[in-house]
Structure formats: structure tokens, C-alpha cells
Request: fold
Amino acid sequence: MLRIGLTGGIGAGKSTVSSTFSELGGIVVDGDIIAREVVEPGTEGLAKLVDAFGRDILHDSGELNRPSLAAVAFSDDEKRQTLNGIVHPLVAHRRSELIEAASEDAVIIEDIPLLVESQMAPMFPLVIVVNADAELRVKRLIEYRGFTEQDARARIAAQATEEQRRAVADVWLDNSGSAGALVEQARGLWHDRILPFAHNLRLGRPVHVEPVVVPSDPSWPDQARRIVARLQTSCGHRAVRVDHIGSTAVPGLDAKDVIDVQVTVASLEVADELAEGLLAAGYPRVAAITADNPHSADTALWHKRFHASADPGRPTHVHIRVDGWPNQRFALLCVDWLKANPGVQQDYLAAKQAALRAPDYAEAKEPWFLDAYHRAWEWAETTGWRP
Reply:
């Protein structure tokens, strides 16, 4: 099962995207629809809202008067938090029920308006954000949904900012054009990334990445932060720490377009316990890889577990290593050593470019790493470096 988080500000066009995914075979779990269900007459949710905001939020029929509730609940932050505190847990419970009823090979699209505000993004292997300029959204809300300009601006101001949404977005869909253009973006995303992702996940198969060195991408650190948050959520307390490592963690260094992340654990037994959760998060285990090439005599302490992303849109390697073992410490040291020594970066880049001409890229780099291991530790002792 592949779970996708879909969000966007009010009036951005999120419903168009979810409808497109539904037509293509996705199972849409719509937060807006669930939010209506949990406050229908006779529900626990509606009773709690009346207790919090009074009977003036009801129609004479006993149904919720949404404009009246909005006028009260969005008037200040405290009241909005009260509203969210009532509705969000009920929506989450109902969402879980719907997901549990889906088949194991389903693609679940969780349409969550307040995904960013509720800090749910790290729960999903893929987060899609639909965006449009605020002024365009105000215009749409007035023309198509009957909002007053004041209400439209108040609703937009009460939600996450564009910057906050960009911070969690694995995919950014711009809806400044026509609805048809947005549909085409969504269809392309479905066929080019979502379906292959779901297929790879179902087979437990990671993405294969050809050894190609590309220019340094300034967005790598932001991408890594999302991956780190996802892995921290998946691993929970069993992870001692989670770090962005490897060449993409060194600003300005050309590298393969693969984000390397290290999950530090207390033992390999704990690493094995993480396999199921990492698969659900989008990272199947690669059983054939059980150790790094040792660069010191204590070869038994270079063992690890290795997972890699099933998402063709974001190749990622997840190295699970034991706290304090030499491979775990060197992964952290190497990044800091490279950052502090531009000349070493150029030396490493030259080694990469030479390795590209060899039959096995990874093996061809090993002589450089064997020498680098000792050089890096000399630097660590000189500078007093600690992980």
C-alpha cells in the first residue's frame, strides 16, 4: 500500500487533483468529506462544537451552520485551536478506519487540507502540494464558492504559508493556469511517479540509480530534511539519531543525485526491527548488502542494514548502522571533514570522475576511501572533532 498526502490552501485546486487521481484508480480519503461526516446531527463531534461555541452555530434544523461556525472559530487563534482540537481527532479516527478497509496494493490519496498545520507530512512516503497565488485563490473563492472577500482572506491567513508548504512538499503542483492544465500535471505525476512507486513498493524493489555525477543541487539539503523527518517518524525512539550524510550533504560538491541518510541504532537487532516500518515509509530493504567495506581491522564492526527508496522521483539510500561502530562514526566524520577542507572535496570529485570509467563505480572509489579514512581521523584528532 502506498499512502500519499495531498494538501493545498483553500481555493488552490486540491479537489481537482484528488478527483483526477480517483479517476485513475486511486482511493481518495477526503479530509473535507470526513470533517463533514463527523459533525453531522447526532454525532459526538457536533455536540462538542455546540458545547464550545454555542447553539448559534446551528441551523434551525439542527444541522451545523458552517458560515456561522467559521465566523466564530476563525476570529482568533485560540478559538481556531479549539475547533481543531475537537475535529482533528475525530477525522483521524475515521480516516484510519477507511484506510484499514483498503486492499494491500491500493494507492491511498489522503486529501488533508491542514496537513501542514497538523504536522502530518512526515507520516507519508510522498507529499503533494497544490498551490496558487493568494490573490487568485481569493478571486476563486468569491466567484465559485460565494465567499466575501473578507472571509476569503481570513481563511487563507489562518492556514499555512507558502513557505511552510514548500518545506514539506515532495511534489509542487502549480495551479496558476487552467483546470485542464492542472489535470494534465496530475495525470503525468500519476503515470510517471506514483504508479511506478506503488509497483516498486509492492515488489519490495528499490530504484536503481545509474552512477552519474551531476552538479551540486542547492535543494538537496531541503530534500534531505524531509527524508530525515520521515525516517524519524518511521523509526521513532529506536533511532538514536538520523543524519544526512554522503556527498549531497556537502554544499557545492558535485555528486550522484542520491540522498544518503544514516539511521543510528543501538544494535543490528534493532535495525532488523525497523524493516517493516521502513517499507511502509517507501524504503525496501536490500538484503544483499549487509556491510560496508572495512577500513580498519575490526571488520565485524562494519556491518549494517541497507534500505533504498522505491520512489523513482527521489532516489535515497538509508544506511542503518550501530552507534559507536567505526562505519557509523566515519559517515558523520567524513561530511564534516569534507566541509572543512575544500581541497579534499576536489580530490574526492576527481576520484568520482575516474570511478565513472570503471566497471564498478562503488568499488573503484574504495582505494580513495581507504586513504581518506586515515586522513579524516588525523584531522579529527587535530581539531578535537566529535560526532
Q: What stands out?
A: The radius of gyration is 24 Å. The chain has a mean pLDDT of 94.
